[in-house]
């Protein structure tokens, strides 16, 4: 029998999840590392995806079930690779885990959220709406576990939030931790990020009613900040005229001298 191979996948968007699942189902031992608190990446922020034009939660649910059922995959969320060294035909990798203020025994019952009064800009909705400092990352989040922006909350309120949890799933003293793993290979699937609109002044970047494609997707999504309505951020009214600029900033010596991978 051949020796079992090991693999580290950096990034748990759809590309990283697919790589991890295919490798594990072929017999490899896999560690999947995601810097955000839930898997799915930018796909989970879209309204519908091509070619079926259905919500991303449908396809992602199938994949998260595969992740749950496969003992060969270890998933680390709120974690990042902070060091890597090629050694003896493989890799030695350092992984840093963010403080786990909410433990794995969380049942997502919502009692802590009810006790919380502090709101922050919702990261999942790209700051276009508010969310409680302790919350599910989004309605279809996996792991189905609350996250706590501890630094946004004063100590007295944090204690009330912790006391509201009947499962003792909140650890206010949690600290960052690191671990070192040895793997045979590494897959980098860290995805993409939008170009900053503020850099595109000639196209209106910086004006309130000029939005990016990723913001448009969140508006169009029923779970988004506007409940699926396309609205002007300046006044909440529906736009009467729309200009759609493709490849904004791409192949431009003043911005990005290459073609975008995602438009």
What does this structure look like?
- Helices cover 19% and strands 20% of the residues.
- The strands form four sheets. A four-stranded parallel β-sheet has the order 3-2-1-11, covered by helices on one side. Strands 4-5-10 form a three-stranded antiparallel β-sheet, with no helix packed on it. The protein has a two-stranded antiparallel sheet with strand order 6-7.
- By secondary structure, it is of the alpha/beta class.
- It is globular.
Offer a concise description of the structure.
The strands form four sheets. This protein has a four-stranded parallel sheet, covered by helices on one side. Helix 1 (14-25) runs parallel beside helix 2. By secondary structure, it is α/β, with parallel strands linked by helices.
- Listing every helix as H and every strand as E from the N terminus to the C terminus, the arrangement reads EHEHEEEHEEEEHEEH
- Largest sheet, order of strands side by side? 3-2-1-11
Number of strands: 11
Radius of gyration: 21 Å
The helix count comes to 5
Mean pLDDT: 95
Q: Strand count, sense and closure of the main sheet?
A: 4 strands, parallel
Shape, principal axes of CA atoms: globular
What percentage of amino acids are in beta strands? 15-25%
The helix content is: 10-25%
Spans of at least 5 consecutive residues whose pLDDT stays below 50 are none
**Classification by helices and strands:** alpha/beta
N-to-C span? 46 Å
